[in-house]
């Protein structure tokens, strides 16, 4: 049977971690409320009454600017049809685009947006005033499909009505490709990723160099070049778009030397990890501690194994974010974390946090692979198992044994699996309720002092490490291995086996129950042949 750890270790020819797709919102912080809108119309533009009649001239001015731009630059203007895949159409236009940089085409689509809607009020003396509120409305959006010298394929979407929402779509892999081309380094593409590279180390260095400033420079550059709904006078008065992260994808691509290795990998992963979507398994992947107040996803915590033709994929969902693995172009394993809401991890949406989110995604991707590798190959040698069963002396410190089957040891190792994900470790008070619940005793009975003794045993055995200067602990890779080994042997082998030799056998799998029935019948046959009878 193929081993996940061996497949990753021996059959990967290229491993690259990189930011993938970036969806970024552009918004004007000074034009989000009705009061700000009234200031913009009256004080800034000089209109005595902030009326919705002023919206149309502003809209028409922008539309006319787009039409002049299209005519001047000889750029195709395309009206998207309902249900039409924009990416497919863009790919066809890009295939015919030969310039090193510029607008490939401009698309127009009517879509929902949050815009201002006016409510008219007539005073007792006939005076008229308007109140404004934010409501979803269907308005035209202009898609500027670009080829950027630094970023390659990208698009900028601009709403045509106040407050002029903007969206950017960029791709970190395409950015890295442009840098490789400028440096003269040969590579082979795998869709939007990499199949091979003449200098893999330089490629990884370039992927790590992508910074928020690169995003800001892209935006500033195209604000100057594209028709924009705001004028230089508006910009000078502080009416400028700011960028906020909407969706961040962080990927790890591992190219196999043979396609069959990818098939072996997914067969073993799917067989061994169908329970990743449960809360206790999700916590192994996402660096955030689940509590009673953690809202579950809309459809609950879940793992989905999807087979599209012959290409399987594994999806693990958490809040509004998820991690997935799939077989990319039948050549590479793509492990990809998609963060749809940075605040799920208590991080702001500002573009300045892009580096932090990238490190977060990289940590999740690595942790998923670590759990898969260790979980699939968590066997312990006889010597290692015997060392756990005996006391350990480290200098003048002595730690008692972690005997397999001991209820307190088993509960402690089961609970430890909940905390392997925490980047800043766990504390005594975090672990204690889980151990007490698994032991089936009151929390008051399992005192902090008892857990301190148990943590000391785990530390001296090398299963956990204490963070310097703190009372926090992190689980070592060896600790994950031991915890999974103890748990698997107990939960998947011993507990079903014990059930099988008891009278109540309905809870064990039918094949195992049938096998034990046959063994019992054979023992009775041998006893009969030997003329042995059970004692009365």
What are the defining features of this structure?
536 residues, alpha+beta, 3 domains, eleven-stranded mixed beta sheet, two-stranded antiparallel sheet, 40% helix, disordered C terminus
What is the topological layout?
Elements: H1 4-10, E1 12-27, H2 34-44, H3 55-73, E2 77-79, H4 86-95, E3 102-122, E4 128-148, E5 152-159, E6 166-171, H5 172-183, E7 187-190, E8 193-197, H6 200-209, H7 212-225, H8 232-236, E9 242-256, H9 259-272, H10 279-282, E10 303-308, E11 311-318, E12 321-328, E13 332-339, H11 354-376, H12 382-389, E14 392-394, E15 397-399, H13 407-416, H14 428-439, H15 448-460, E16 464-466, E17 473-475, H16 477-500, H17 510-529
What would you say this structure looks like, in words?
Strands 2-3-4-5-6-1-9-13-12-11-10 form an eleven-stranded mixed beta sheet, with helices on both faces. The longest helix has 24 residues, at 477-500. Helix 11 (354-376) crosses helix 16 and helix 13 crosses helix 14. It is α+β, with helices and mostly antiparallel strands. The protein contains 17 helices and 17 strands. It is elongated and about 100 Å long. It has helices spanning 4-10, 34-44, 55-73, 86-95, 172-183, 200-209, 212-225, 232-236, 259-272, 279-282, 354-376, 382-389, 407-416, 428-439, 448-460, 477-500, 510-529; strands spanning 12-27, 77-79, 102-122, 128-148, 152-159, 166-171, 187-190, 193-197, 242-256, 303-308, 311-318, 321-328, 332-339, 392-394, 397-399, 464-466, 473-475. The chain has three domains: 14-260 and 317-365, no CATH class; 382-493, Arc Repressor Mutant, subunit A, CATH 1.10.10; 501-536.
């Amino acid at each position: 049977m193929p081993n996940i750890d061996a497949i990753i270790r021996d059959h990967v020819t290229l491993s690259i971690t990189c930011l993938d797709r970036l969806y970024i919102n552009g918004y004007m912080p000074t034009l989000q409320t009705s009061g700000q809108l009234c200031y913009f119309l009256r004080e800034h533009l000089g209109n005595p009454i902030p009326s919705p009649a002023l919206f149309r001239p502003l809209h028409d001015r922008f539309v006319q600017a787009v039409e002049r731009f299209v005519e001047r630059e000889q750029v195709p203007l395309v009206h998207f049809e309902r249900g039409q895949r924009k990416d497919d159409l863009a790919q066809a236009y890009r295939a015919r685009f030969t310039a090193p940089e510029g607008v490939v085409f401009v698309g127009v689509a009517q879509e929902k947006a949050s815009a201002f809607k006016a409510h008219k009020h007539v005073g007792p003396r006939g005076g008229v005033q308007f109140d404004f509120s934010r409501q979803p409305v269907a308005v035209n959006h202009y898609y500027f499909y670009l080829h950027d010298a630094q970023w390659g394929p990208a698009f900028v979407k601009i709403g045509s009505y106040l407050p002029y929402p903007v969206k950017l779509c960029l791709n970190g892999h395409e950015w890295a490709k442009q840098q490789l081309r400028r440096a003269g380094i040969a590579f082979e593409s795998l869709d939007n990723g990499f199949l091979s590279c003449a200098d893999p180390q330089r490629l990884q260095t370039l992927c790590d160099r992508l910074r928020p400033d690169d995003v800001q420079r892209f935006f500033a550059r195209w604000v100057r070049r594209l028709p924009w709904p705001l004028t230089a006078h508006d910009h000078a008065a502080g009416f400028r778009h700011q960028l906020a992260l909407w969706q961040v994808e962080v990927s790890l691509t591992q190219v196999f030397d043979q396609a069959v290795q990818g098939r072996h990998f997914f067969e073993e992963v799917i067989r061994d990890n169908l329970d990743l979507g449960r809360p206790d398994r999700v916590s192994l992947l996402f660096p955030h501690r689940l509590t009673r107040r953690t809202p579950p996803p809309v459809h609950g915590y879940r793992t989905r194994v999807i087979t599209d033709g012959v290409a399987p994929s594994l999806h693990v969902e958490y809040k509004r974010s998820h991690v997935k693995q799939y077989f990319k172009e039948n050549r590479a394993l793509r492990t990809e974390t998609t963060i749809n809401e940075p605040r799920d991890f208590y991080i702001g949406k500002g573009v300045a946090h892009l580096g932090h989110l990238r490190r977060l995604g990289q940590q999740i991707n690595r942790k998923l692979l670590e759990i898969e590798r260790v979980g699939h190959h968590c066997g312990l040698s006889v010597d290692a198992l015997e060392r756990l069963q005996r006391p350990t002396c480290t200098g003048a410190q002595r730690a008692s044994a972690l005997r397999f089957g001991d209820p307190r040891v088993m509960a402690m190792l089961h609970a430890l699996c909940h905390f392997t994900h925490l980047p800043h470790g766990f504390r005594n008070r975090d672990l204690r309720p889980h151990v007490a619940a698994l032991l089936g005793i009151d929390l008051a009975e399992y005192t902090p002092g008892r857990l301190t003794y148990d943590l000391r045993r785990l530390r001296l055995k090398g299963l956990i490490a204490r963070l310097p200067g703190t009372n926090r602990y992190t689980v070592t890779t060896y600790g994950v291995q031991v915890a999974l080994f103890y748990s698997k042997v107990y939960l998947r082998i011993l507990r079903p086996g014990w059930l099988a030799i008891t009278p109540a056998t309905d809870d064990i799998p039918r094949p195992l129950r049938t096998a034990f029935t046959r063994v019992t019948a054979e023992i009775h046959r041998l006893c009969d042949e030997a003329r042995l009878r059970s004692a009365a």
